[in-house]
Specification:
globular; Helix-turn-helix domain-containing protein; BAT_GAF/HTH-assoc; transcription; transcription regulation; alpha+beta; eight-stranded antiparallel β-sheet
Length: 214
């Protein structure tokens, strides 16, 4: 049975963490992907900062061999990254353990990761790798998909659960809708795209955690 686990690490423990030194207010979100040696977390969003400013900072990142700007929305951009496989760190641990990254969000304080593993040994392998390489990680919650807990029920993170419940209680799912993404995002004081991504991931995890999708 698949297992969902969440971890947090200090901002500087992840290769993109240096960006927060220049832009402490930004948020970075990694697109969901199954990492491989050839495609380690290839897509990421950088929000709340003009894209041209972020590009200058990315050029100074040693862990990136190259990057491509995929989508420029002014104060947020989608980038495709090619990581340097010779730079060992937390990315190596994710790849070696064959973990699926469901979500990863970074702020100046920390990175929060949500992983899916087909076997709990993968989680243990990742933890062992981090311990061996002095990478400080904090385990949030861990549970099998379908198991119910007060925190992280059905594979939702606390932020995703908050977004789904807020949308439901405010009539977002009614016909016609009684609210929109912009109003919901404003209530949580986050960017529209950030709320949209959080709601989309939460809905996906809710479906996977309650329905037989195999």
């Amino acid at each position: 049975m698949s297992t969902i686990a969440t971890f947090s690490v200090p901002a500087d423990a992840f290769p993109l963490g240096h960006i927060f030194d220049s832009f402490p207010e930004i948020t970075i979100e990694i697109e969901q992907v199954v990492p491989t040696n050839h495609a380690i977390l290839p897509y990421f969003w950088v929000r709340e900062e003009p894209v041209e400013n972020v590009q200058t900072t990315l050029e100074a990142q040693g862990a990136l061999k190259s990057y491509t700007l995929v989508d420029d929305l002014g104060d947020q951009g989608l980038f495709r990254a090619e990581w340097d496989p010779d730079v060992e760190g937390i990315l190596t641990g994710i790849v070696d353990a064959k973990l699926t990254v469901l979500s990863a969000t970074g702020t100046e304080d920390e990175w929060k990761f949500e992983f899916r593993a087909e076997d709990t040994n993968q989680i243990a392998e990742f933890q062992e790798y981090c311990a061996d390489h002095d990478i400080e990680i904090t385990l949030g919650h861990i549970h099998s998909i379908g198991a119910r807990t007060d925190e992280g029920a059905h594979g939702l993170t606390s932020e995703q659960r908050e977004a789904v419940l807020l949308a439901y209680k405010n009539g977002y799912y009614e016909t016609p809708p009684e609210t929109n993404l912009g109003e919901l995002a404003e209530e949580l004081e986050i960017a529209n795209q950030s709320f949209s991504d959080r709601l989309r991931r939460g809905t996906r995890n809710l479906i996977e955690g309650t329905l037989d999708v195999t």
